[in-house]
Amino acid sequence: QSALTQPASVSGSPGHSITLFCAGTSSDVGGYNFVSWYQQHPGKAPKLMIYEVTYRPSGVPARFSGSKSGNTASLTISGLQAEDEADYYCSSYTRSNSHVFGTGTQVTVL
Amino acid sequence: EVQVVESGGGLVQPGGSLRLSCEASGFPFSTSWMTWVRQVPGTWPEWVANIKGDGSIKNHVDSVKGRFSVSRDNAKNSLYLHMNNLRVEDTAVYYCGRQNEGGSIDYWGQGVLVTVSS
Asked: What is the rounded CA–CA span in Å between residue A6 and residue A8?
């Protein structure tokens, strides 16, 4: 199972919006509504930010939102804040009854 | 308060064995899917294995099939990863987590480092 494809880096200014993309196939992202997004700060465990494509766990700010179109999932961060600077990974359930992560995007707040 | 704590990591020679443990509290462990994820520092996470609450279903990533085995002891609120015939490429931080219905991992441990080297 190959990793999902994410751009290596994205940057934005405080208060602006950015969108991260996660490209998969019909065997994973496109085939199931089981896409998740995780935020990871250096030296820390990943933190769940979005699950089942669009849902936010309790405690995650509303400026984080998720969507999907075909084989590509997206995470939008609106009103970018300094603490949003981190690595972001997408993940999807796969046809082979496993899970696959994306290659990760480093978000920089300018 | 939810707590997930891994233990058992360390340095092991290629071909060696190791057992990771994960003790959880603060959520209904015996009815929760649990999962292992590993991450080589500086790279993306890799899903390794998961197990249903009653232990009746187990799944492993192809790269560890036949070498690693996930198990659990619900009486001890504990999850295990038995790792045999370890390879240099198994070197990573191993995380334990609770997997919810949609496959997302909503509770994570702090991770434990496994180093396979001669």
From this structure: 6
Smallest CA-to-CA distance from A76 within A108, A50, A48 is with A50
How far is B70 from B84, CA to CA, in rounded Å? Answer: 12
Verify whether the Cβ–Cβ distance A36 to B102 is below 8 Å. yes
Work out the minimum CA distance from B42 to partner chain A, whole angstroms. 9
Residue A64: count other Cβ atoms within 10 Å of its Cβ: 18
Write down the residue that tokens 């990974």 correspond to: A89
Q: Tokens 């799944």 correspond to what residue?
A: B59
- Counting one residue from chain A and one from chain B, the pairs whose CB atoms sit within 8 A come to 60
A40-90 per-position pLDDT tens digit:
999 999 999 999 999 999 999 999 999 999 999 999 999 999 999 999 999
At residue A97 the predicted structure's pLDDT band, cuts being 50, 70 and 90, is: confident
Write the DSSP assignment of A69-109 as a string of letters.
Answer: ETTEEEEEE-S--GGG-EEEEEEEE-TTS-EEEB--EEEEE
d(CA B79, CA B53): 10
Residue of A nearest to B62 (CA): A1
- Taking CA–CA distances from A91, the nearest residue in chain B reads B104
CA distance B17 to chain A (A): 24
Residue B45 corresponds to which tokens in the numbers above?
A: 């996470």
Sign of CA dihedral B59, B64, B66, B72: negative
Residue type present at position B80: Y
A41 to chain B, any CB pair closer than 8 A? The answer is: no
Distance of CA B76 to the CA centre of its chain: 16
